[in-house]
Design goal:
The structure is a single chain. The chain is mostly beta strands. It is 11% helix and 49% strand. The chain has 6 helices and 23 strands. The chain has helices spanning 4-24, 27-33, 67-75, 101-106, 162-167, 225-228; strands at 82-84, 91-93, 109-120, 127-142, 146-158, 171-186, 189-196, 232-241, 244-251, 275-278, 286-295, 298-308, 313-319, 325-330, 333-345, 348-363, 369-386, 391-402, 415-427, 432-442, 446-456, 461-472, 487-495. The strands form 3 sheets. It has an 18-stranded antiparallel beta barrel. Strands 10-14-13 form a 3-stranded mixed sheet, with no helix packed on it. Strand 6 and strand 7 (189-196) form a beta hairpin. The radius of gyration is 28 Å and the shape is globular.
């Protein structure tokens, strides 16, 4: 019997091949993607070859063949291509067509088509997002010790999307790649080189030790944490052993957080058009080492790193020829010592992070810079209410403390604290997932409320509806200018 779902997916994969080849066609890519031809003895219906050498027999058992077992198997030989093992050990169906070379090429690929619309909750309820994307994920193990992963996405922003409006275009195209790396593993050692995301932290509400990979803030908190992390070129080495896992990384050219572009929905010019910003073009590398040890369901980790701040620093550098303020943008280095833990007991999971960051640069109210140590901490508890952990309630507390703070540090208080309350559950046989997240921040009081829903319509189609609402009580908060940017976001995803 032909599986219509598989047949449809096969058609879609064939159509997607043209796009894949257009994005990836090169001699080196083709060599990396090529798969060996299907062996003539491979039995496709079973999904793997079966050799009689792998079948064992009990010599003490009777060697007679029961005709009552054989007869129904022989009677089943009515259709063409059916085969019967005369010993009665197994029966295989070989009537299905073998995979074509094109299907073999596409087998390691996963494709996702997505369309997204975001509408403002506040009047006049304008369309903010109207965009489509085509995501390609490729994973391939080869030559026993090698693994290749590519995750890239082509985004299309339609005319009513704020990104297209900023470019004054009917459609604006942009390509982004999260992963594109090659991994080599031998024994207890793994080496990975290429574009990748490195996650060290445990906190959901703050960047405590998870400060290696920069993040995309171009659309504020409307971008999920998973999608917000930006891949960058790096080399990593992991060494596994009974004493724990040692991890080393090196980034030759550190990248930076992304913020709203001029003309987009969320862009705010901090200098209100009165300054010219220059600099920040010198490449600077970063590196670090982590040790992690697992104890059953719990673990601890200790790390040290020399990092480039994911945000540029800004300082006054004089005036331009036309009398405007000249601001220099620089890449600032700081050191980090950190520790994390996870502890599981019954239905509880506790996690925490602590990081000492030396020589963090802070801008003063006169556009100068002050270097001050920063201590960041987070403590989180999660309680499972059932359903294998898919129904849970969590609370996380974070705090960021500037040592030797003074009131000349512009816009950054001595202590910045947050409380993050989360709840999630599933319904309708786990097809509907609902998550609630509330973030309360002090001392400049603000409350961010988010609802995330995802419904699995079928094996390939998912529907998402997210709602974001921001309430700012203290106008000194940096979020005050975005208080009316409350959105409802609807997404349709088709995976094949």
């Amino acid at each position: 019997m032909i599986d219509r779902g598989s047949e449809t997916a096969g058609v879609h994969r064939t159509l997607a091949c043209a796009i894949v080849l257009a994005l990836c066609a090169s001699p080196s890519w083709a060599r990396a993607q090529s798969a060996p031809p299907v062996d003539a003895e491979t039995i496709d219906a079973a999904g793997a070859s079966v050799s009689m050498d792998d079948v064992s027999f009990d010599e003490s058992a009777s060697q007679e063949i029961d005709s009552s077992v054989l007869t129904p198997q022989i009677d089943a030989l009515d259709g063409p291509g059916a085969e019967v093992d005369p010993t009665g050990v197994s029966v295989f169906e070989t009537g299905e067509e073998r995979a074509s070379p094109l299907e073999t090429l596409l087998e390691p690929f996963n494709f996702t088509l997505k369309h997204e619309i975001a509408i403002g909750i506040n009047s006049p309820h304008e369309t903010v997002n109207n965009r489509s994307s085509f995501r390609i994920e490729y994973e391939k193990y080869f030559l026993d010790d090698f693994y290749l992963r590519v995750d890239t996405k082509l985004n299309a922003f339609w005319g009513s999307d704020h990104r297209a409006k900023a470019e004054n275009r009917d459609i604006f195209l942009e390509n982004s790649s999260r992963d594109a790396f090659l991994q080599f593993s031998k024994g207890n050692t793994s080496v990975k080189v290429g574009r990748q995301v490195l996650i060290w932290g445990e906190s959901d509400g703050g960047a405590i030790t998870d400060v290696i990979s920069p993040r995309n803030f171009s659309e504020l908190f409307f971008i999920s944490l998973e999608e917000a992390r930006i891949g960058q070129f790096m080399a990593t080495v992991d060494r596994f052993g009974p004493s724990g896992t040692w991890s080393l990384f090196y980034v030759p050219d550190a990248q930076f957080n992304e913020y709203p572009e001029p003309g987009t929905q969320y862009y705010i010019d901090p200098f209100q058009g009165t300054a010219e910003v220059r600099g920040g073009d010198v490449d600077r590398g970063e590196y670090g080492l982590r040790w992690k040890k697992t104890f059953g369901r719990s673990d601890i980790a200790v790390m040290a790193a020399s990092l480039i701040d994911n945000d540029f620093s800004f300082r006054q550098a004089g005036f331009t020829d036309d009398g405007r303020l000249l601001v220099r943008r620089d890449r600032e280095r700081f050191g980090m010592l950190g520790a994390t833990f996870n502890f599981a007991s019954g239905n509880w999971i506790f996690s925490g992070e602590l990081a000492w960051k030396s020589s963090k640069a802070f801008t003063t109210d006169t556009l100068g810079l002050l270097d001050r140590p920063l201590v960041d901490a987070a403590l989180r508890g999660e309680y499972s209410l059932g359903k294998g952990g898919t129904h849970s309630l969590s609370l996380e507390l974070t705090n960021s403390h500037i040592r030797d703070w003074n009131d000349s540090i512009s816009g950054t208080p001595r202590n910045s604290a947050s409380a993050i309350l989360g709840w999630n559950n599933t319904f309708f046989n786990d097809n509907l997932t609902v998550s609630l997240l509330s973030v309360y921040s002090k001392p400049y009081a603000s409350l961010q409320n988010s609802i995330f829903t995802s419904y699995k319509w079928s094996d390939r189609v998912s529907l998402n509806l997210d709602v974001f609402y921001l309430d700012v009580a203290d106008r000194r908060s940096g979020l005050a200018v975005y208080e009316r940017e409350n959105n409802a976001v609807f997404r349709v995803l088709y995976q094949f």
